[in-house]
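Query structure, 362 tokens:
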């Protein structure tokens, strides 16, 4: 059935080998987290990741996805991580399914402590520090707040402070550098000195930090990276450079042509707004060969799709249809033919989330 995602496990394994080597050998990190949220913790991919000897943690932003890891054979199950700051309403599930959760709010950590106590467990947390990207974390300049928070956490019987972490290049698009990552390491050392403890992890960010590891410039003291996009698509997300040993076509979307007709490139009549309330712009290409494929904005981001046939242009689409200009292609397409696309991060995320898209493995 189409539309379908073709998941090439050998190519994914190659990407994983490459990013693991960069993180651990070039970046000298102790541990590697692979982030499964972009592929909705697909069980076959998760298992492949979990079996890899250089992966230490499986991480996701949704508890539901983390809970699904436990269906994997026990011998492969790595430590599990919840990346998004927990909601108050989910602390019991967090304690049940997650080994290490990221936190920045004392009220939530207190609830996790109570839930862990009830469950007879000790729950590990990573305290998030905001180094300027302005998404989650205690703001780095508020050192008093950081120290007071750590002091209270250390007094909690059922919470273990596993380490500190930073997230960058998500909201503020701030690029990881020696100064912001170095600043995090400095905060970690201050916490250790002040309280006489050893932090087990200083997590230095996501796929935007791997370029530093590759250049062997990851600041000393950063012991972990959390990688999603660089594993899936083989690029760093700070400068979008392609990482050595990776490919960007481990995941291909295939969609089927349902209509193919010669029509004008300019719509006829007064122009209002399209199905999404936007005013479209058209280019006059004369009469063109227009193919409609059965996949749309409910399943994917049209801007995030690149046809493997480089002579196809994506003209636009609506919820369930994507319209292609196939006029210049060397292939004589017909109704029923399948068109293939490479994908960007946003398209991957939506395609895995869509219940209307099949998944196949090769
Ligand atoms: C999504 C996420 C990641 C992974 O980001 P990529 O850019 O896909 O590598 C890492 N850390 C946190 C906190 C995240 O939310």
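Result returned for the query:
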């Amino acid at each position: 059935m189409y539309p379908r995602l073709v998941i090439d496990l050998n190519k994914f394994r190659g990407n994983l080998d490459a990013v693991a080597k960069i993180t651990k050998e070039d970046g000298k990190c102790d541990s590697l987290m692979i982030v499964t949220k972009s592929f909705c913790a697909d069980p076959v991919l998760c298992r492949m990741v979990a079996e890899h000897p250089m992966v230490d943690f499986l991480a996701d932003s949704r508890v539901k996805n983390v809970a699904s890891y436990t269906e994997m054979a026990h011998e492969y199950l790595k430590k599990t991580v919840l990346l998004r700051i927990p909601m108050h309403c989910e602390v019991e599930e967090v304690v049940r399914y997650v080994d290490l959760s990221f936190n920045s709010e004392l009220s939530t950590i207190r609830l996790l402590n109570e839930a862990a106590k009830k469950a007879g467990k000790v729950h590990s947390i990573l305290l998030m520090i905001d180094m300027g990207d302005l998404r989650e974390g205690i703001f780095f300049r508020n050192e008093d707040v950081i120290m007071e928070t750590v002091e209270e956490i250390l007094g909690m019987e059922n919470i273990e402070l596993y380490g500190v972490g930073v997230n960058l290049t998500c909201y503020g698009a701030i690029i990881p550098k020696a100064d912001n990552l170095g600043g995090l390491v400095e905060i970690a050392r201050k916490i250790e000195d002040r309280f006489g403890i050893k932090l087990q992890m200083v997590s230095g960010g996501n796929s935007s930090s791997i370029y530093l590891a590759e250049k062997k410039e990851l600041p000393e003291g950063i012991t972990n990276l959390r990688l999603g996009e660089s594993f899936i698509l083989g690029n760093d997300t700070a400068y979008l450079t392609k990482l050595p040993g990776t490919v960007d076509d481990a995941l291909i979307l295939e969609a089927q042509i349902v209509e193919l007709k010669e029509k004008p490139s300019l719509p006829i009549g007064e122009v209002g707004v399209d199905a999404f309330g936007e005013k479209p712009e058209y280019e006059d290409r004369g009469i063109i060969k227009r193919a409609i494929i059965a996949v749309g904005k409910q399943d994917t981001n049209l801007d995030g799709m690149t046809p493997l046939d480089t002579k196809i242009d994506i003209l636009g689409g609506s919820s369930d249809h994507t319209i292609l200009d196939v006029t210049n292609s060397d292939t004589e397409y017909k109704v029923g033919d399948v068109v293939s696309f490479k994908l960007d991060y946003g398209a991957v995320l939506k395609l895995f989330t869509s219940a209307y898209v099949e998944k196949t493995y090769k």
